[in-house]
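Hello support,

Our group uses your service weekly, and this is the first time we've seen a run hang past the timeout. The protein is AB hydrolase-1 domain-containing protein. I'm not sure whether the cause is the sequence or the server load. Input pasted verbatim:
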Amino acid sequence: MAPSFLSFVSLYGIYLRRCFATSGLTSQFIDIDDHTTIHLWAPNPDHQTPQQQKPSLLLLHGFGPSAMWQWRRQAQFFSPHFHVYVPDLVFFGDSTTKSKERSEVFQAVSMGKLMEKLQVKKYHVMGTSYGGFVAYHMAKLWPEKVEKVVIASSGVNMRKADNMELLQRANVENVEEIMLPETATQLRTLTRLAISRRFTMVPDFFWKDVINQLYSENRNEKLQLLKGITLLAGDDSCKLPPLQQDVLIVWGDKDQIFPLKMAYELKELTGKKTRLEIIQNTAHVPQIENSTRFNNIVKNFLCGSS
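Update from on-call engineer: The timeout came from a worker crash unrelated to the input. Re-ran successfully.
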């Protein structure tokens, strides 16, 4: 591994932390119970006054790097309008647990405990990819606390057949070869599936730096999280209970992790109060590839009337 002062990833991480800090967020550690500690970026409680009454927004990241790498542009955009909370899910970033639980339901319960500890009584939830799984469960578990729900690029309705098709598109045998890359070749495959643009000229040392800095920690635990997903349906039908809240689904038209057809089906499954927005020329991370369009769609949804 290259020294941190030679690592582009480490240097960019410094920039990301500065972006979160200048957005009015501070790095915090919260013990939500005797077993689990959550790291998050959140408003400084010492700087809030009763006049600063804004709605609350919880951002849940996808499988991959920690939260600050996935939500930087949203933290900057939404902080003037919302109290923004950006946690690392358990075993990502600096969030840890001694519990043996490994499901996305456990992640949802942990995030619910976090918001309770922070004394946030009502809040909107936005989750991307794996974070969308967690957001769905939070909405189902606490309909009286979770107000509006945004599910971005998240195959909550994924069947085993969809998983097999993903492996075929990636030309790999196991999903961890995509979601937990160990080699430059595997990370190139993930990038090809997740981002609409191509990075053919990027050298191996850069990919290896990304893997060493962002994908190496808690690898065994993350593998257990992949195997512990409870939402994976059978091959024939997906019986997903609808949500009570207003739901916004946002998808990139070129997503190859969860193809666009899954977005249309998810809209039907989550209920009559769901709307779908498709962002052209983006793939699995529209919040990064076209953050301006993504942010405005979400803000209009969250600030609009039901």
